Amino acid sequence: MDTPSWRREADAHKRAMPLHRLIGNGMNYSDVIELYARVGKGQPWADIAADLGDQNHQRAEERRRAGHFLSAQGWHLFAAACYRVGQVPLADGDPRKIDMYRKLIRDFIGAGALSDPPVEHVEIDYAGGALCGWLLRPLPLPVGLPPVVIVAGGFDGWREEYHVGASYLLDRGIAVLLIDGPGQGESRLFHGLHMDTTVHEAFSTLVDHLLIDERLAPVVGIWGNSMGGYLAALTAATDNRVAACCVTGGTIRPAEILDRYPRFTEKVALLLGIEDSAKACSELERFLLTPELLGQLNCPLLVLHGTPDQVFLIENARRLFDGAAATDKTFLEWPDGDHCIYNHSHEKHVAVADWFIDRLFNRS
């Protein structure tokens, strides 16, 4: 008997967003369990996640009115995580996607307002639109100003997905800019920006913005995840102001994902803003970290990868690492690690945060 289409779709969502990824990136355990249970009964993934997000938002508002602001902050973050997970499979033109993304921003703002210092929503002018992100600053340091790390995601794992990892940097006195680059998240959905082969110029614009912020030290690192790992390495190779670069689950050739998952073409087309699928795939092949580019990547480099990763193969992460001109470089490999090492979340985040401390503070 053929598997029903709703069941195939549900199983595909679970494979793309397994429990350890969702929890490790900020979703409440009980919400993940309920999401999986209800989608397993045939309910639509997006509708369930929106419902769970609404419940968490209501809890946040109740806690806020009662004066329990730390509790309210937690529920706002859980709400934002539900909306983020729920909108992933929806097309850009689907009103439910836009509604959920607006709610995601609302609840992230709600949580950020309760942080100390408050999280700031930033819009940086670029190419007739805006690069949108969240600036998270640590408590004042005993001496000096905090360095800052730009954190970028990939095809559909956008900025808020990396808030948990950002918190490890904050706890260690490092500021973070969680960013939606061209073709990602808010920058795409509300400002019409799409990615092209000049994307490194967008990230250099972010460096410009951070270097003139007098609340931050003029020391900028970058940390990219999945496709964002390619972007981080590209930025470090083309902008010598980048002080340190971390690549998690990255590659020298993002188009390799289509070798194994041709159905991912739809996400590529949305990222690039190209409706013709064949043209979008052809364009993605132009995104490549050549030996010449890697020969310009001189800043300290950390590469993390899981051996069995099938999204981006470990040999392509190795080629990035081996080709980089950096003399201070480290490769961390997890023999059982999945894509972006979601199944070793705490271990990964500690390794990255401590590495950035050692590279961004007390620089000679």
Helix percentage range: 40-55%
Number of strands: 8
What is the tally of helical segments?
16
Separation of termini? 67 Å
Largest sheet: 8 strands, mixed
Q: Give me the side-by-side strand order of the main sheet.
A: 1-2-4-3-5-6-7-8
The radius of gyration computed from the alpha-carbon positions, rounded to a whole number of angstroms, is: 20 Å
Low-confidence stretches: none
Specify the structural class. Answer: alpha/beta
Overall morphology: globular
Strand content: 5-15%
Overall mean pLDDT stands at 96
Which H/E pattern describes the elements?
Answer: HHHHHHEEEHEHHEHEHHHHEHEH
A few lines on this structure:
With 364 residues, the chain is an alpha/beta fold. It has 16 helices and 8 strands. The longest helix is centred in the N-terminal third of the chain and has 21 residues, at 45-65.
List the keywords.
364 residues, alpha/beta, eight-stranded mixed sheet, 16 helices, 48% helix, globular
What does this structure look like?
- With 364 residues, the protein is an alpha/beta fold.
- Helix content is 48%, strand content 14%.
- The chain has an 8-stranded mixed beta sheet, with helices on both faces.
- Helix 10 (227-238) links the parallel strand 5 and strand 6.
